Amino acid sequence: MVRPASFGWNPQTGVSNHFQPPRPPAVAGDPGARAIAEFDGLAAALVQAGVEVHALADLPEPARPDAVFPNNWVSLHADGTVVLYPMLAPNRRGERRLELLQELERRGRFVVTRLLDLTHHELQGRFLEGTGSVVFDHAARVAYACLSPRTDVEVLGELCDELGYQGVAFHAAGPDGTPVYHTNVVLSIGSRCTVICADAVAEPERGALLERLAASGRCVETIGVAQMMNFAGNALELRSRAGASVLAMSQRAFASLAPASRERLAACVDRIVTAPVTTIEDLGGGSVRCMLAEVFLPRSAAAAQFPEDR
């Protein structure tokens, strides 16, 4: 996680992110301070659930209004690969700070063996915004992506070739008919359950996609477009230090679900953690999953020998 230093409405992202207001909203108080409080509350809730959290610090200058969403610029894989991704908004590219990766590596005693840099695609106007654009099914080695101005099929193909995954591209639209900007608001894949807004998926592609998701053996929980717009699909399953499954989502997302849906999700994990991130959702157009860059990197032998140091 990256603790924001200059959170705010970003004029460069609203054109393609229709979860974000198209112009600066009138808000009371300091949205940056509220975003920090929401960040700290989510991090504390995850730690209380036993999840290992590395909260790294953004810098105040230059301003990075979306630095709280690190999953768009990096993914960290079990074979030691770190992937850097091309992002559409020029003022977001400065979020890619290698010193943050070095600090994460040091803190967690993680081992990085390869850096896969896809950022050169920005020169040709092709983008793939990390695990916003790509939802990985790591068990089946499948990478799902709904195409949009931020998610290019050619870059997806290169990523899959490099990682040894199969890419599955589809189209999804919001209530106004515009492409959904990121896959991770449409689709979430956990160990036992998949959450998907089927109604947002293009009708010619919907049946095949649902069949493929069901074939994984997971239960498939469908949500409506209104629930998607409340970030009910923007959830992430994590593991606690003790190995328990923890589903993280915002309070707004959880509240939008019907009681039966909440019960089905709860039956698929050991614990659900919710936190209010209203300011981040309202101004940034992203929610809890966007705030989390999960770490699958292997640990050094020293980390395994001295786990109490983590």
TL;DR?
The protein is an alpha/beta fold and 310 residues long. Helix content is 29%, strand content 17%.
List the helices and strands and how they pair.
Elements: E1 2-3, H1 31-48, E2 56-57, E3 74-76, E4 81-84, H2 98-108, E5 114-117, H3 130-133, E6 135-137, E7 142-146, H4 153-163, E8 166-170, E9 187-189, E10 193-196, H5 203-215, E11 219-222, H6 225-229, E12 236-239, E13 245-250, H7 251-256, H8 259-268, E14 271-275, H9 278-284, H10 301-305
Parallel strand pairs: 1-2, 4-5, 7-8, 10-11, 13-14
Antiparallel strand pairs: 3-4, 6-7, 9-10, 12-13
Helix pairs in contact: 1-9
In CATH terms, the superfamily is L-arginine/glycine Amidinotransferase, Chain A
- Report on the biggest sheet: 3 strands, mixed
- Uncertain segments of ≥5 residues (pLDDT<50)? 306-310
CATH class: Alpha Beta
Overall pLDDT level: 95
The helicity comes to 25-40%
CATH topology: L-arginine/glycine Amidinotransferase, Chain A
Q: Can you describe what's shown?
A:
The chain is α/β, with parallel strands linked by helices and 310 residues long. Helices cover 29% and strands 17% of the residues. The radius of gyration is 18 Å and the shape is globular.
Characteristics of this structure?
alpha/beta; L-arginine/glycine Amidinotransferase, Chain A; 10 helices; disordered C terminus; single chain; 310 residues; three-stranded mixed β-sheet; 14 strands
